[in-house]
Amino acid sequence: MKKVKKLICTIGTGSYEKVTYTFGERRKETRLAPVAIGSFITGEEKGLELVALLTQGARDKYRDGLRSEAAALGWTCTPVDIPDGKSEAELWEIFEKFGEHLKEGDEVVLDLTHGFRHLPALLLSAVQYYAARKRIKILGVYYGAYEARDESNNVPIFDLTPLVDLPEWSYGVRLFSDYLLPKLLAEMLKNIQRRSHQPGSQQKFSRLQKVASALRDLEAPLASGIPLEAGFEAHRTLEKARSAEAEEELSHLAPLRGFWEELEERLESFALPEPKVPKGDKPKKGVILTIEELERQAHLVDGYLAISDLRAAATLMRELIVSAVILHTQNPKRWLEGEERQRAERRLGVIASWNRGASQLKKLLSKEQQELATLWDQVRERRNALAHAGMREDMVKFDAQVMRDLHDRIERNLATPSFWNTEVEHKDERWLVSPLGMTPGALYTAIVQESPDHLFIITSQKAKQKVGEILTKAGREDLEVSCLILDDPFNGFDEAREKAEEALKEHGPHWILAREVIVNRTGGTTCLGWAAERIEAALRRDLGLEPRTVACIDRRDPEEQRKRPYVRGEVIDITQR
């Protein structure tokens, strides 16, 4: 779309005398201020369209003179008939006439020098309205201050553009303060720098554009609830803002004076400190997990809750809980690694499951762990509902106060290590879980090599009769033995599934408290081995344990194994890491 530069003015019916209008170093002698202003802002440029809003009296008196002066400067002149503006209806007609001569993409200069005194207020409001509705660009608003002329009849042209910008400044400040959207402020700063380089400008800015660019880059991560990227961009923007403040006279522009300090304070609350490693493809590696970093992210959550962005708030609250667990109970240096975060999430999921489930498991948790488990469940539930766009049967509830209460519990405990502890106190005991078929060698080797304190056997009624002999041969008659008996050790997979679940309920609390649980995968039928595998999976999934998995190997030939079964074999660690 072709851009057209238009100078819009009003002309009254007064007798304007010839004066010298001044704008910085520029001077123009004329009776009509729009002619001077147009020549100041265009210089040698041709193609300006002068749009003159004229009452009947002004049309008769000045139309031909305007056309003549415009033609001499290489402009076109478009007279627009307007009423006198003596009633509210006529004012609205002028408003509409103004808009009829604006097209999307026009670049507009507004002259408020001549005309009825109430028209400047109307035109100021109108140009702001059409800037939003028709996407016009306001290049400037000017006023020829005849009352401020000197003894030589020199009349200064005042740049009133900042007055037009004030509503936009107000809106931009509110968008950033109330909704964490800084892009409009970026556009305002960009416009200030651009206008400062127009002819007649008293001060030229050179660093506002850099601040504007950084603010634009800040909006996406800040609005999306991504705290580290937002922290980096806020840090960069803060550096640019401080540099602009130090090197440019921002105090000369009234909207910037009070705003700049607030901008820096706001950015500082979001910003990350300088990374400890050189910037590169992975600058986040330099972010150290500390209480201060958790508090910075919690402050971001406060901001999202303040603007009712519950999705961003819930998402970051969930990650705050994970990070706090890692800081206080795991390896903070690896806090951004997927494996470290998944480990914390698994532990949180496990204690939440215990807290919801069987009473004997819940009793293993301290009061703080029960509170953490409940907090995790409540935050996770809300985060999932919002992150998946409410795609569930139940209605999503938008209770901001509940979210604030949950966040308050997170913030209140960030510096309390005991609150984030997901581990229970272990006994110095080791359990061996193993299948047992009709050949005793694998179980014998596992007992001799691993020296467990407790033995859990998955076997048949017939094979169970060998247990006493195996313990005697291993010299471990002291071992406490529990058994899962399958009626059909060859095809009883459904039976094995049910009994494995029962065993988990009965023995789960003991396995949780054990220093180590070892699962032997060898010995017995396929069905017995599958049952052992099911229990191992449940230890990881439901109890949050990390059992060690082994296989017992006897390298002798089968005949020799049958003749002499009680010979120590090898134990190979096959744990899935």
In spatial order, strands of the major sheet run 3-2-8-7-6-1-4-5
Regions with little confidence, pLDDT below 50 for 5+ residues: none
Radius of gyration over alpha carbons?
Answer: 39 Å
Largest sheet: 8 strands, mixed
Mean pLDDT level: 89
The oligomeric status of these chains comes to: single chain
What global shape is seen? Answer: rod-shaped
Describe the 3D structure:
The protein has about 575 residues and is an alpha/beta fold. About 50% of the residues lie in helices and about 15% in strands. The protein contains 21 helices and 14 strands. The chain has helices spanning about 35-40, 55-70, 90-100, 120-135, 160-180, 185-195, 210-225, 225-245, 255-270, 290-305, 310-330, 340-355, 360, 365-385, 400-415, 440-450, 460-465, 465-475, 495-515, 525-540, 560-565, and strands at about 5-10, 20-25, 25-30, 50-55, 75-80, 105-110, 135-145, 155-160, 425-435, 455-460, 480-485, 515-520, 550-555, 570-575. The chain has an eight-stranded mixed sheet, with helices on both faces. Helix 16 (about 440-450) links the parallel strand 9 (about 425-435) and strand 10. Helix 8 runs antiparallel to helix 9. The longest helix is centred in the middle third of the chain and has 21 residues, at about 225-245. It is rod-shaped, with a radius of gyration of 39 Å.
